[in-house]
Amino acid sequence: MNPEVTCRELVEFLDDYLAGALSPERVQAFNLHLSACPSCVAYMKTYDRARLLAQQALRDGAPVPSEVPEELVQAILAARDTDRS
Amino acid sequence: MPEELAGRLRRGEPAAFEALVRSQAAALLLVARQLLGDEEQARAAVRSGFRSAAGRLQQLAEQRALASGLRTLVVQACLAQRSASERHDAAAFERLLPSFLEDGHHAAHPADWSHLVSGPGAAREQREPVRACVDRLPEPERAALLLHDGLGLELPEVARALELEPSGAKTCLQRARQALRSLLSERLERSPA
After folding, report:
1. Which residues are CB-neighbours of A37 under 8 A, at least 6 positions away?
2. Least CB–CB distance from A45: residue in B105, B112, B151
3. pTM given for the model
């Protein structure tokens, strides 16, 4: 186990590691830790999978509104007029 | 947000409010639908957001923060609706986050279930279970995940919408993903391989 990086640190900076946002030195230290730590490898693989599944599940279900429902526009305008009077 | 409309709002033109509603309400409704999952509640949140904004449109226009300001108000209205109807157990949520020994090692070896959900149809098969797991997250973690991963907002935009510091939004998103990983682990470790 690489003493430079703990499992806690790897988990804490995992998003940055997966996004390629860490310095080359830090990446090297993380890679060294991962080469000796099956727990962190399992954690990273499942964290990354959960992240991707969330993106796929949440993005493809979002409806794209083509226009604003007219009754909503009128309700907003009516509420504004009520507040002004 | 067209600069021409922002200029009309800065000058206080009465008709500009309706133009603003017509140009922004669809995008805001999409945000509210994502956060609330219910059409009537989503419309109520959008109404509430515009109502809150009505008194300070000139100020928001002068700050060139109309679109993000409106989104923040709608997101806050959504969160208020959620907090009024749901209560989450903070201790239960903490148990979904990774735990470590004093020396910084994992307290327990995490099971690797990634191979169970990596096939070509996995995203489609897991869509509903994943959405159900996301719905079990507390706020603002759930909202951070929906705004970032669902609507594709960048972290600074998520932070503004949730009225958090950027570092707070990043932590929120990370905690949401950590908890989601644990919820999926519970589910998949029970399933036959």
Report:
1. A1, A7, A10
2. B112
3. 0.85
| Interface predicted TM-score (ipTM) of this complex, two decimals | 0.85
Q: What's the sign of the alpha-carbon dihedral B80, B172, A58, B113? A: negative
Rounded CA-CA distance A39/A27 in Å is: 18
A36 touching B (Cβ < 8 Å): no
CA gap B71, B49 in Å, rounded: 8
Interface test with A, best of B102, B112, B189 (most A CBs within 10 A): B112
Chain A residues with beta carbon closer than 8 angstroms to that of B112: 41-42, 45-46
pLDDT of residue B76: 94
- Residues of chain B neighbouring A61 (CB-CB closer than 8 A): 127, 131
User: Of B80, B72, B39, B99, which is closest to residue B162 (Cα–Cα)?
Assistant: B72
CB contact under 8 Å between B123 and A56, yes or no, is yes
Q: What percent of chain B stands above pLDDT 90?
A: 62
* Predicted local confidence at residue A84, as pLDDT: 76
Residue by residue, pLDDT tens for chain A (85 residues) are: 445 799 999 999 999 999 999 999 999 999 999 999 999 999 999 999 999 999 999 885 555 566 889 999 999 999 888 877 7
3-state secondary structure of B106: strand
Nearest to B153 by CA among A66, A22, A58: A58
